[in-house]
Amino acid sequence: MQIQEVYSLFLKQGIRQYKFKNSKIKPIDYKPDGKKGAIFGFRSKEKMAAGRGVVLTSEEAILDNLDGFTHWTPNVYSFGTYADKEKSIVKGHAENNLKQINTFLIDIDVPEGESLSERQIIDCCINSDFGFLPTMILKSPGGYQIYFVLENAWYISNKDNYGSIRIAKRISENLRIFFGKSLPVDFSCNHFGIARIPRTDNVVLYQPHFVYPMQQWIDWSMTFAPAKPKRKNSAGLRVLKGKLRGQVDEPWVKILLNRKEISGTKGVIGRNNALFTLALAHYASGISYQECYDFLDEFNSFQLASPLSEKEYTRTIKSAYSGKYQAASRVVIRRLVTNWT
Fold this sequence. Notes:
By secondary structure, this protein is of the alpha+beta class. The protein has 11 helices and 11 strands. It has helices at residues 3-11, 45-49, 59-64, 118-126, 163-180, 214-224, 251-257, 271-284, 289-303, 310-320, 330-340, and strands at 39-42, 54-56, 71-72, 76-77, 81-82, 90-91, 98-109, 136-140, 143-155, 195-196, 203-206. The protein is globular and about 70 Å long.
């Protein structure tokens, strides 16, 4: 395993290959890179917790510190800077600054006194209908970290209210749920933040050809999601027979759930009102907040061409379940159906 190739596979040209200044290995005839992003490196878990790190803008800079970092951000940010004059506190590794997502990560925390092998992790993948094998498995002091590197970078744009992040986050959540059924997964760590960095002394498995296109992950996530406890009356799913439970089983719900083009067009009752009205129908039908949140989150993230941001989506669902409203308004329902069908 060539560690330089590992970094190139992970970072997918998101940062420069060589230092912009003072490079020791850049070829004389090398043409300068265009605008690139930044990642962050940390020399210990304690320094990481304190935010004391290094802004890295080239693969060469990582190699200059070979095995000197314990943690990094494998997904690339638009920029990185320092919050203090001494340039020791890093700033910029926030979700809304993500430039591209390169990998999904599963963090395995093995409880004290218990054991787990990389073979068990592989068995978890192959003894099921999962269909993916890890690109890399790292051994950490408390367990393992499993990397699934994308075939191509998944670029982030704020033009769609960061909908690309929401799609990736839903896939990451489903991955954690899948592995959490048989492995001690840490569900609390950031989906696309800081992780253990591959070094010459911690890689237990590396298969560079096990990289997958984002669309394959989206297809898997949409297939896997219905396996979670969900209401079974939605677009593309069977309609419950027998007595209706309330508004949630009325025809207009299925109609709206099939309209991926619903957007936040100015002056037109649209995306926010559609999600709010659908949530009210769930509330009026006695469906729990969490079940409604998860179900409509998939509709918002995967089906809407222009989804709500996570913050706005959460605010909308909470408002519907605030107790201030009894059910979805018939006037609003008619306007939504008229506008979008």
